[in-house]
Amino acid sequence: MKEFNVGVVGAGHVGLVTSACLADIGHWVTLVDVDEERMADLKVGEVPVYEPGLEALVDEVARRGRLRFSTELTSVVSAADVLFICVGTPQGDDGSADLSNVGAVAKSVGRALAEAEEREHPLVVVNKSTVPMGSGDYVSMLIQEGAAEAGNGSVDYRVVSNPEFLREGSAVYDSLFPDRIVLGAHRRDGLDVMRALYEPVVEQSFPTKLDPRPKVAVPFVTTDLASAEMIKYAANAFLATKISFINEIANICELVGADVGNVAHGVGLDERIGSRFLQAGMGWGGSCFPKDVAALKSVAREYDHQPVLLDAVVAVNELQWKQVITKLQRELHTLKGKRIALLGLAFKPNTDDLREAPSLKVARALNRRGARVTGYDPVAGKKAVRLQSDLRVVFDLYEALSEAHAAIVVTEWEEVRSLDLEEAASLMKPPKLLVDGRNALDPRAASAA
């Protein structure tokens, strides 16, 4: 395989995973970020995000010299064959994606290219940040503008869209064994470089300790820039729709006496539908689904198109966590003076991400109604306290349950799934109400306890 010099801009979740995995499959990678403190931490082996397997992988490839850390973009651009942009695109007030970070990087890349010596090959600039359709052309324009401002308007580069499909909690696995790799570009030579870069993943030729190897080959999808950008938004919007759909079905099941778990199983056996993302619960959160659905809705409205289905998907999701409050009020009558335990705080297991997490919305609503809330999470607890100071956080599951009038399963951590229901009941105060917001526990065993 050909070994590339790769620059990755942005030391967040996506940038860290991307840089570590590219280094692991045999490339020479430099991770760049303007946050000097974060880069200093990384140089001594402190990874700022929780992701299973990532810290060990970063340490390994750094010790092998395959991964380096820098705060200087200019030198990285000069040496790189491929440069990934992995900076944040936060949601604006109107739901649109804020491209200011992407734009700043693009202009800096243009200036760096203008100041560098003449290149043997064009720099391939890869947009891995989640961006709306047309952003590839926007990045290209800003690179050109940055170069012109530096006095050289004839810089050589190619812009490629390469959306990420990483699930928090399994991002390293998803990078090395993806369902597909999607690339979009206006010119073929940029795609050819990316095919060579990803050859070990596409052909699954890199060494792995997993036996058997999960995949023998990975589909390599090439298209135009706008279509590649749209694939990411469409995929996340569909998954969010699927979750909202099963939650709507769950609400109807509760009314008619049906078991949504059995319903989802029966529906999921249909090969046209599939069983994944049919787990009813408190709704979706995190950094991707809320932001990406909002951005897609914003794009639709730019063209005077009303995204009726996406509006409904969001409305159903918003109702899910509110129904938990309604159930508590129905059973406890008043929440004033009641102690409520939240079992899990992160928006999903195996991550410390609390962005748009139902737990914090529920905690705020309970506090406003006079309840006292104690939260448990094995990973996200300290972060939760920083975000919500009136939330009491403990790191022992049974301590959270002690003296609680009600408990809510918010995140289906393995510790929560394996909860000793009899011990939990012995610690709680009447009426000892358990609201399983993730359908993670056996309802018959819970009733018996």
TrEMBL record:
**Assigned keywords, A-Z:** NAD, Oxidoreductase
Binding positions for NAD(+) per the UniProt entry: 33, 38, 89, 130, 168, 291, 355
Q: What class of enzyme is it?
A: oxidoreductase
Q: Which residues form the active site?
A: 288
What EC number(s) has UniProt assigned to this enzyme? 1.1.1.22
Q: Summarize where substrate binds, as residue positions.
A: 165-168, 232, 277-281, 285, 348
- What is one GO biological process annotated to this record? polysaccharide biosynthetic process
What molecular functions are annotated in GO for this chain? NAD binding; UDP-glucose 6-dehydrogenase activity
Protein name from the UniProt record: UDP-glucose 6-dehydrogenase
* Source species of the chain: uncultured Chloroflexia bacterium
